[in-house]
Amino acid sequence: MATSSISRAAKNPINFSARNVESQKKQTHSRYLSFSHSTISLQKLSLVKGYHISRKLHKTAVFNVLETVESRSGSVSRTRDPDNVVNTERPTILVSEKLGEAGLDLLRTFGNVECSYNLSPEELCAKISLCDALIVRSGTKVTRQVFEAAKGRLKVVGRAGVGIDNVDLQAATEFGCLVVNAPTANTIAAAEHGIALLASMARNVAQADASMKAGKWQRNKYVGVSLVGKTLAIMGFGKVGSEVARRAKGLGMHVIAHDPYAPADRARAVGVELVSFDQAISTADFISLHMPLTPTTNKIFNDETFSKMKKGVRIVNVARGGVIDEDALVRALDNGTVAQAALDVFTKEPPPNDSKLVQHENVTVTPHLGASTKEAQEGVAVEIAEAVVGALKGELSATAVNAPMVPPEVLSELAPYVTLSEKLGRLAVQLVAGGSGIQSVKVVYKSARDPDNLDTRLLRAMITKGIIEPISDSHINLVNADFTAKQKGLRISEERVVADSSSDYPIDSIQVHVSNVESKFASALTDNGNISIEGRVKYGIPHLTCVGSFGVDVSLDGNLILCRQVDQPGMIGRVGNILGERNVNVSFMSVGRTVKRTKAIMAIGVDEEPDKDTLKKIGEVSAIEEFVFLDL
């Protein structure tokens, strides 16, 4: 029987014309890579926009990052124009939303602090050209217009909290401005609020309170449920999720969790069992959400997901509103699939006054209070102040969410290998099955150059980015890649192997090996039981060249279908016809085999994501033993 791993189907697939192979060959190693969360070296900062590097912006950005010095009388910061240097005695730090006094005191020891709250966009743009740093919470929108109005002077934006949706990261990077956040100080407060909502929902506290204040005494109406002995599923076992688990265990609950990256030993230490997504939602009496909002998790709790849950389940969300399809949740509440929900976050904040979800009698709501304790507010203030002061001193923070980049001459040579590294990371994580999570990754670089002269930090960071970012809210760059990997229990080792090839190119091939995991696609496993994939750059384009022990040759552009099949005539045509009938455009196709007329791997590049019926038809082809769809 064919096995399948099917990703969520695209809602509006679009056709693209077949790629022209000759035009691909014209693309060279000089292509520049543009990506949202870029990386920096300590020596130079280059800015990438599309395929063009601006020399003027690069000069300004290098100056911004490096030209901060300290004098005996205090910090001396220079303005942003390298052609017109003016010294100021102390940097100016604009705080546009309320910040705890402990953080303000720390900032005042280093610079001139101006607190101006409730600024309109126009007022913010008028002030920003006189500021070296800006500290915001979630209410201030730091748009491209703000960075343009800063005229190159703004060195750092500090977000007092975790989310950075209100900051234009691409514009910040283009203008040489570092963005830092404060991701740890809110942990306990958010966990406590999650437990508070859990208990108050179970015992109808909010509804009973409103009833009494309306002059009623309805003891029989508000009979609750006990927490002891109930199963709580923690969806996202990071900092907050693990703290919620500890507290729920203390309440006598049986706790399970789903998180692709949580180390099993860390979960066991708390007394938590890691399980698959479907097992978590189908067996839980209570579900507590602690996952980030990413393209993968956007509306992951929808009609289909709710239909798999135990009838009468109760849901708590103190993470991100967008992970729940709010209309689908209302339907699930109305039909009794979900008995109650307690929500601190919403897709749109504040939600509309006539929101059916907010007004639902079985829903308890709070206005995004997860971090709203005095202690958390002070902690966030100190954490962001330390990050901003460090950035103004020229230090690079592990909480940087955009990044300084590598020198342009290095980037231009490594650009296609940077793309290859990230895509190999994305492929590797999608090939992993089960709830154990990735803990150990080995990267092997083959190169004709002296291994001591091969700087792989950027490539390692991009492999980490590819593995972690698709299902995480972490933003990976050269500064924080190793730090983030360590936090998530991910060990990445590297090996450099001398290759008998041309030294004109920095790298011959990159291999990624994932140890001690199960695979959705068994053919990706080598004899030692590790998932193994290899890629190369050909004509400036990243290619997948090996899966497990099977050689393939397919461009890593668009999406990819891997099929293990009986090696017999007509297979390419049969699969190609299925895709063609469903208007799915094939860009590349490659077949690799170990022995003639036995087993083969067919790698198919497609422009669109096939729907579930199309993938099912591929799996029903008798000669196909397993297949997997991979989103690049």
UniProtKB/TrEMBL annotation:
It is found in: Plastid, Chloroplast. Keywords: Amino-acid biosynthesis, Chloroplast, NAD, Oxidoreductase, Plastid, Serine biosynthesis, Transit peptide. Pathway: Amino-acid biosynthesis; L-serine biosynthesis; L-serine from 3-phospho-D-glycerate: step 1/3. Its EC number is 1.1.1.95. The keyword Oxidoreductase applies. GO terms for cellular component: chloroplast. InterPro entries: ACT-like_dom_sf (IPR045865), ACT_dom (IPR002912), Ado_hCys_hydrolase_NAD-bd (IPR015878), ASB_dom_sf (IPR029009), D-isomer_2_OHA_DH_cat_dom (IPR006139), D-isomer_DH_CS (IPR029753), D-isomer_DH_CS1 (IPR029752), D-isomer_DH_NAD-bd (IPR006140). One of its GO terms (molecular function) is phosphoglycerate dehydrogenase activity. Residues 560-632 form the ACT domain. It is an enzyme of class 1 (oxidoreductase). The keyword Heme does not apply. It catalyses: (2R)-3-phosphoglycerate + NAD(+) = 3-phosphooxypyruvate + NADH + H(+). GO terms for biological process: L-serine biosynthetic process. Gene3D superfamilies: 3.30.70.260, D-3-phosphoglycerate dehydrogenase, domain 3, NAD(P)-binding Rossmann-like Domain. Belongs to the D-isomer specific 2-hydroxyacid dehydrogenase family. NCBIfam families: PGDH. This is D-3-phosphoglycerate dehydrogenase. It comes from Abeliophyllum distichum. The lineage of its organism: Eukaryota, Viridiplantae, Streptophyta, Embryophyta, Tracheophyta.
